[in-house]
Automatic annotation (TrEMBL):
Pfam families per UniProt: FBA_3
Designated name of the protein: F-box associated beta-propeller type 3 domain-containing protein
Species assigned in the record: Triticum urartu (Red wild einkorn)
Domain F-box associated beta-propeller type residue range list: 7-169
Amino acid sequence: MATGYLVLCNPATRQFARLPLLPGFIPLGMYPHSPTGTGEYRLLLYLSSSERAPDAQAGCYILSLGSGQLPRHIGCRDVERLINTFGSVMFHASLHWHRHNVIMVFDTITELFREMSAPVVPGPINLFEMDGMLAASIFTDPTTSIDIWMAQDYDNEVWAFKYRVNLPVAELTAQFGKINKRCCVVFASSDGHALVLAKFGDWLLQVDMDGKLVASFHGRGIGPTQNRLKQSLVQHTFFPTLEGYVVNASPFI
C-alpha cells in the first residue's frame, strides 16, 4: 500500500497496476470470489466513522476489482479493531486475523464475520496454512524456539500442539547479527514442511524444522512479511482495467 492507492502485482506473470482508493477507506484483505467462476477478485475495505463523508456509512465495504463500480457497503461496524491487524490468511473461503487472543473470521461467501477460538498461548500468534489445516506459530523462551499449533478440528475450533522449532540463536547471532523477533515468520513449503524466515542483523535466514540453516540472503532493510504468495501463470483479467497497468516493466526491471 502507498499513499492514496494500492499496488497490485503478480510476480509470476509480472503484471503490475495501481488502484486508487477513495479517501478514508482502509484495506483489510483481498480474496478470490470463487462462486462466480470468472476469476473475480475482491477487496474487503473498512471506512471508519471519523474518516467518512457526511453521507457515507461507516463499516465494511466490498470492492470488485476491475468492475468499475463503487465499493458496496455490507455493515459490520464493530470490526474496526482489524484496522491495526497486519495481514490476513485465506482458508476455507474465509479470511482470518488474530487479534487479542481471538481469531476474527470473515466468510467471503456469506460476507459475515464471526469469532473463532485461538490456541491458548501467551502473546500474539502468526497464522498460516499447513498440511491443509489452519496453523499458528508463536515465539517462546522468549526467542530461542517457535511452537506450531494446528487446528486439527477446524469446525469445532480444536487446536493441538504439533511442533517446536529450536533456533540456534547464539550461533546465528555470532555469524549474522542480532535477531529481530518482529521479523520472523513461519510458512509451509511446497512439500508441506514448516520453514522459518528470520531476520538476523542485515540477513534474512531460512531455517528448517530441525533448526538447521537452509539458506541466507543479505540485504539491508529487507525482512519477511505475513503475505504469502502462491505462484500462478493465469493472467488476471482485472489488471488491464487498472491505472498504470504494465507487464514486464518497472518494478520488475
